[in-house]
Protein: Cytochrome b
Organism: Neptunomonas qingdaonensis
Amino acid sequence: MLNLLRAHITTSKRYAISVWDISIRLFHWSLVAGIGFMWFSGEEGGNIMTWHIYIGYCMLGLILYRIIWGVIGSPYARFSSFIKGPSSTLIYVKGFLKGKKHDYPGHNPLGGWMVILLMLSVFVQGFSGLFSSDDIFTEGPLYSFVSSKTSDFFTSIHHLNFNVLLAAIALHIIAVAYHQIIKKEPLVKSMLTGKKLMHQPSNVNMRPNYLAMFISASTVAAGVYLAIELT
C-alpha cells in the first residue's frame, strides 16, 4: 500500500516547464484580436473598412512571422516539433478515443494540424481580400491589378473561406474547453504565462532568442509597411 501511495504521489507531481516563448504568445493573442476586429469591421462596413484592410495586412504579416518562427524559433514553436505524419496522428487519435493519456509539452498531433488549418485559413482570408470588392464601397488594394472575373473569384473565396475559418475557430475553442474543463489542463493560462504543467521535468533550452525575434519581426514589419506604401 505504501509503495502504491508513493507511486501515486510520483505520477501526480507536475512540473511547470517553459513551452511558449513571448513571441508565440503575442502572435496567438494578436491573431485572436485581429480576427475579432476583421469580423466586426466586415459586418459593420463603411469607413471602418479602411482599417479592415490595414489589419488584414497585419494578419498576413503575423502569418509570415509565424512561418519564419516555425523554422528558426524556439523548440516547441518549430513545425518539426508538432507536425506529425498521418500514421502518428492516427495512432494518437486511436489512443485518445480509448482514453489513453498523452503528455505533450507542445501541441499534440491533432493540435498541430489545427494550427496549420488556422494559419492557412487566415492566410487565404487575407490574401483573397487583397483582390476582393464589394462592388459598392470597398476594393482590395490589389483589385485594379486583376480582371473583374478574377476579382469576383477572390471575393467568393473571401466570403466562403471566412465560414471555414469560423468552423476552425469553433473546433479550436471546443478542444481548448475540453482540455480546460474535462482534463483540467489550464491551456489558456499556459498561453498567457508560457508555462505548462507536465509530469516530467524538462531540460530543453527555452532561453529566449530576442535578437532572432527582433530581426524576424522587423523584416516582416518592413515588408508589410512597403506593401502598404506600394499599393
About this structure: DSSP finds nine helices and two strands in the chain. Strands lie at 15-18, 195-198. The first strand starts at residue 15 and ends at 18.
